[in-house]
Design brief:
globular, about 20% strand, alpha+beta, 4-stranded antiparallel β-sheet, single chain, about 30% helix, 3-stranded mixed β-sheet, 5 helices, 9 strands
Amino acid sequence: MQPMKATAKQPKQETITEGQYRAFQQAYDFFNAELFAGTLPPVLVTLQRHAKARGYFSPERFSGRIEKAAAHELAMNPDTFTGRSDEDILSTLAHEMAHVWQQAHGKPPRRSYHDRQWAAKMKEIGLQPSTTAAPGGKETGQSVTHYILPGGPYAKAYARLKATGFQLHWQSAPQGEQAKAKKASKTKYTCPECGQNAWAKPGALLLCGDCHDDGEGDTCFLLAEPGEDDA
């Protein structure tokens, strides 16, 4: 009797979950090396749907169940992927990585605030902070986004990443009219300073009467939970 020939074992196909989170981990590691000289600590990248925020950073949001350790959360909102290029989506990742850098190597401001130190780092990596996402917008404040500087470090780093064949494959499915109506309903807001709560429509600017001016001309506003960032 002839011995049976061993058949080559087929490689395990990557799951949807593995593929999506691997891509963001790959991008994080790549930009860490290219834009931050590999100085950023590991973080837990999550996908979180959060009204009016493309992403947010929350320090030490996770604690270890086996080992005594803490991990920062870097959240990406898949609802904001639709209609945006991979370069734009990953610029949000880099925006949040600037917060990680400040947490690890700078002087972190109050929760969710974008200060001058963070703004300087953003410009250093090729992202221009702007409250309007356009030239002329204010660089600091409670809610600050950005735009990509053409030919800057981020744009060049992304081009190198893209050249490796990198792609994002998943985004939120289009919402029906019922879901849109629900999204437009009242949203809980929490002051990042004193914890006071209020409810209003998404995007409302609510002044917290218990908090004072921050010294830079900005007043504390109530932010929709979790409220860490508005990239």
